[in-house]
Design a protein that fits this description.
By secondary structure, the chain is an alpha/beta fold. It is 29% helix and 23% strand. A hairpin with a 5-residue loop joins strand 24 and strand 25. Helix 4 (117-129) runs parallel beside helix 8, helix 4 packs across helix 9 (384-397) and helix 8 (364-379) crosses helix 9 (384-397).
Length: 525
């Protein structure tokens, strides 16, 4: 494995098979017996699958099931679709009861998984940290408390919690007020040393850094709302009172940590809205440009801040002021000194609940935070290097072949990550035996369910089809990549595991249509 840093069934229908009970080893033995009967034909098909294809050739399907209606439909879809001309389509379908491969199209070819990488990260986090794991944030102080005065520093020590909201800083400040503290004669300190100081994963493009999906990772951070996009603010732009005036700008949560440069203007009713909201590269400045008609709808962007530790401290400073607590020192980032005394602490929701916004909404920040947390817990270092070592160890334990994986981050935003579709479907089969599997399954988006925290990134896909409510799967989408991997219950009541990873697709929207078509074909069986 490269690590950052530096199969067959014969019959009229492939789904009409006897369900096999027993433990994982028993199922593997049955699977081996079935597979050996077809070893020659499978070997021949695999050999054919690796015959080099010219740029203009249609990819050839490596199917171990010949003649079934499903296979014919899949072959036709993959062979005759102009959208896939020059692209790669890894498709792996398994029987959910036995793990047997019942369809395989270049399933052993390493492909960029996009956010299907989160399937690995979530499984490893559950295995490493446990379903009931909670992030902790501590409030400490140095010096002494004399009456209503703290003669010393007040320290906010972050330990990775990506779910801290303004109301949580308010609660910390309220605790201080309850303790009778009205004046702080010392510094307000943010301690983010629980993790290292590397804010971006190795392959993140600088052009992504101002957007929520590329936010910096810090052990002390804050989120604007209950989507928990840590390290971001929500910038909203509304039309001005009349044409020619500046639009109105609001920030959630309210903060002076960012500088807003409003170059936009309100234009006449009925004119076209053309507005951009973007943080300037490497700065604290958010620039708003363009035009918004006086009758236009608001524009809204989740903007990643520059240096989340300072952002969290700014919100906490506001909370202290709101409680009437005066601060007469500096605001700095530093490690907590030895001997600091704990005043109070806040705990996040348990991991099994955090998985909902993480996986349903495909939250990149959660993925990278979990990578660092696994490194901290298992290796004593909250870094991508150590966290990815843990990720490799855990997914290997869960049945994946480490020799064929290339892992560079936890979210899948890297274009260097490489995973074969067969390995993703293998992981999805193996995790079914884990005690934490119900939480894992519950975190996957469900096709066609409009509630965001149920349907997630699949809420508007595969509606009015047999796939609706029957496909539970993780989406994946970065430039030229569209992926979907998970579980499907067919109309006949069978359960299948699938992984579909398309690479080098020019039009991402068209790639999603193909992915959804394949998932729907499975649900129709």
């Amino acid at each position: 494995m490269q690590l950052f840093p530096h199969t067959g069934y014969k019959g009229n229908s492939p789904f009409k098979k006897e369900k096999v009970k027993g433990n994982r080893n028993e199922r593997r033995l049955i699977h081996m017996k079935r597979t050996n009967k077809l070893s020659f034909s499978i070997l021949l098909i695999f050999m054919l699958a690796f015959v080099p294809l010219s740029h203009n050739e249609t990819p050839q399907v490596n199917a171990t099931v010949e003649g079934s209606e499903l296979v014919q439909q899949l072959n036709q879809l993959l062979n005759n679709n102009p959208i896939l001309q020059g692209a790669l389509a890894g498709v792996s379908i398994r029987d959910a009861q036995t793990g047997e491969l019942i369809y395989d199209h270049i399933g052993d070819i390493r492909l960029r998984p996009a956010s299907n990488m989160k399937l690995l990260t979530a499984a490893a986090a559950l295995d490493t940290l446990g379903e009931d794991f909670r992030f902790t944030t501590e409030l400490l102080h140095t010096g002494s408390i004399n009456g209503s005065t703290l003669q010393g520093d007040l320290i906010l020590k972050g330990k990775g919690d990506p779910t801290l909201l303004k109301q949580d800083f308010d609660a910390f400040a309220a605790k201080l007020k309850e303790a009778g503290i009205k004046i702080i004669h010392g510094n307000l300190v943010g301690d983010d040393t629980w993790y290292d100081d590397q804010r971006y994963s190795t392959d993140l493009s600088w052009s992504d850094e101002s957007w929520y999906y590329g936010a910096q990772i810090s052990a002390l951070t804050a989120s604007p709302n209950e989507d928990y996009d840590a390290g971001t603010v929500i910038v909203e732009v509304y039309p001005g009172e009349e044409a020619g005036k500046e639009p109105t700008v609001k920030i959630e949560p309210e903060t002076d940590y960012l500088k807003i440069v409003n170059k936009a203007k309100t234009v006449a009713k009925g004119e076209k809205k053309d507005l951009t909201i973007e943080r300037d590269h490497g700065t604290y400045t958010v620039t708003i440009e363009g035009e918004i008609p006086i009758d236009g709808s608001r524009s809204r962007e989740w903007i990643a801040v520059w240096e989340p530790t300072g952002y969290a401290l700014d919100l906490f400073k506001q909370s202290l002021a709101d409680q009437g607590i005066k601060h007469k020192g500096k605001v700095i980032a530093a490690a907590t000194p030895k001997g600091a005394k704990l005043l109070t602490e806040h705990q996040s929701m348990p991991l099994k609940e955090l998985l909902i916004p993480f996986m349903k909404l495909s939250n990149n920040g959660h993925a990278e935070t979990l990578i660092k947390e696994m490194g901290k817990v298992e290796k004593g270092e909250g870094s991508w290097e150590k966290g990815l070592e843990v990720l490799e160890e855990k997914v290997t334990k869960l049945g994946m072949n480490e020799e064929t994986l290339v892992l560079h981050d936890g979210s899948g935003i890297s274009h260097v990550n490489l995973i074969p579709a067969n390995e993703i479907s293998r992981l999805l089969f193996e995790v079914r035996d884990e005690e934490w599997f119900p939480s894992y399954l519950n975190s996957l988006p469900i096709a066609g369910i409009t509630n965001r925290m149920e349907g997630g990134t699949l809420r508007n896909r595969m509606k009015n089809s047999n796939a609706a409510e029957n496909v539970k799967a993780k989406t994946g989408s970065i430039s030229t990549v569209s992926a979907l991997s998970g579980y499907v219950t067919t109309t006949s009541g069978e359960e299948l595991i699938f992984s579909i990873v398309l690479n080098n697709v020019i039009n991402g929207s068209e790639g999603k249509l193909i992915v959804d078509k394949i998932a729907t074909l499975l649900a129709d069986q």
